[in-house]
Amino acid sequence: MSISAVMPTYARTDLVFDRGQGAMLYTTDGRSFLDFGAGIAVSSLGHAHPHLIAALKAQAEKLWHTSNLYRIAGQEKLAARLVENSFADTVFFCNSGAEAMECSVKMARRYHQAQGAKDKYRVITARGAFHGRTLAMISAGGQDKHLDGFAPKVDGFDQVAFGNLNETRAAITPQTAAVVVEPILGEGGIVPADPEYLKGLRAMADEFGLLLIFDEVQTGVGRTGKLFAHEWAGVTPDIMALAKGLGGGFPIGACLATERAAKFLTAGTHGSTFGGNPLAMAAGNAVLDVLLEPAFLKDVNAVATYLWAKLTPVVAKHSKVFEGIRGKGLMIGLKCKAPNGEVLARFLDQGLLAVGAGDNAIRIIPPLNITDAEVDAAVAMIDRAAASLAA
Q1: pTM score, two decimals?
Q2: Are residues 274 and 301 both part of a single domain?
Q3: How confident is the model at residue 345 (pLDDT cuts 50, 70, 90)?
């Protein structure tokens, strides 16, 4: 038995994409696919967006990397824009969602321990959550399928039921430093948090002197129709992790925080060699150029409303294949009755790309700038795929 040159940590679909344009992807053998997976909610503006291309080309011809030993103008610009358009006062840049979550948890621990509470390090998380693939973050998520073979778990995380305020309250101890939650479980199956649950977590954090961390790696940057998903609930965290759509396909992570939460994360306490380099910042600023245009999120909500209206009756029609539809904006989960892998295979036969999730669900997470015509095409493919499977 010989191992492949690319380490076989993925069960990859046998497709090799050569180019993309908008919501379309094209393989090396000439096939075309409508991309309603967007690289797992990463390609927020689709493929080969002209503004992103121009920004990256211009930066690539000037400077790629200097490290964080020096000021980086693009960081200062992107951080200021994120601060201006969020709850936050300050931003740390890294390369991925897992890194942004690691920064979030480190910040929460240091916040308490720098003030003398040396025993405060535990973080309450939700069962079914996903926060990344580092040893600490698979322990935070607590899912057996991610932990298998990586024992022992990193200590410091206590799981409670998603959406259950009573169980969360009961899990608070003198060692608890923070509570972490996704406003919508992503990998866990596209399960939205009730706004009252998020409000309750905010009140609970304030009551017990905890920091509230929102993992908006997948829900943030316009995915739900607002810049950040927590805005729908009218609740703000102390710390928030971003990644995925922020770079439009270029690896970027960001940890946003209030001054109060971040004030002890001083020089030398945290860092990143690559994080926030000039190329990444050019991509992030280009994405925000588009997302912050006055009409952009209005258009996202309009096309999302259209997609939900078209998709809902199709899901109801194929009740042997689908159990229901849930989510928010352009973050949609199809809860399946048939095995979701089989449903995804039928989607692929029709020329549609989507992404699997926990709880036997499928993620419909297209680029934010899809058109009504692309919605029509995707829904028709879903209809035909479900009919073929039911038959």
Answers
A1: 0.97
A2: no
A3: very high
Domain end (from 236, 257, 291): 291
The reply to whether omega before 152 is within 30° of 0 (cis) is yes
Each residue of 252-270: pLDDT tens digit? 999 999 999 999 999 999 9
Same domain (yes/no): 313, 279: no
For the record, the structure tokens of 254 come out as 């960001």
163 and 307 share one domain: no
Q: Identify the domain containing residue 101 by its residue range.
A: 63-291
For residue 56, being part of any structural domain is answered with: no
E strands within the chain? 17-21, 24-27, 32-35, 90-94, 122-126, 157-160, 176-181, 184-185, 191-192, 211-215, 239-242, 253-257, 322-328, 331-336, 352-353, 355-357, 361-364
Q: Is residue 369 assigned to a domain? A: yes
**Residue given tokens 């910040």 in the structure block:** 107
Clarify whether residues 274 and 326 are in a common domain.
Answer: no
pLDDT number for residue 102? 98
Whats the size of the chain, residue-wise?
391
User: Which tokens in the block code for residue 5?
Assistant: 């040159």
What total number of domains does the chain contain? 2
**302 & 284 share domain:** no
Tell me: pLDDT of 1 over 80. no
pLDDT (0 to 100) of residue 391:
86
CA distance 226 to 335: 24
Tell me the residue type at 104. S
Structure tokens at 380: 């028709």
My answer on whether 112 and 138 are in the same domain is yes
* pLDDT tens-place string over residues 70-124: 999 999 999 999 999 999 999 999 999 999 999 999 999 999 999 999 999 999 9
Name the residue among 253, 260, 258, 264 with its Cα closest to residue 102.
253
314 domain residue, yes or no = yes
Q: Is residue 221 a part of any domain in this protein? A: yes
**In a shared domain, residues 282 and 299:** no
Q: Please say whether the beta carbons of 331 and 190 come within 8 A.
A: yes
CATH number at residue 192: 3.40.640.10
The distance of Cα 314 from the centroid of its chain, to the nearest Å, equals 27
Q: What DSSP letter does each residue of 280-293 carry, written as one string?
A: HHHHHHHHHHHHTS
State the Cα–Cα distance between residues 138 and 98, nearest whole angstrom.
Answer: 10
Three-state SS for 86-131 is: CCCCEEEEECCHHHHHHHHHHHHHHHHHCCCCCCCCEEEEECCCCC
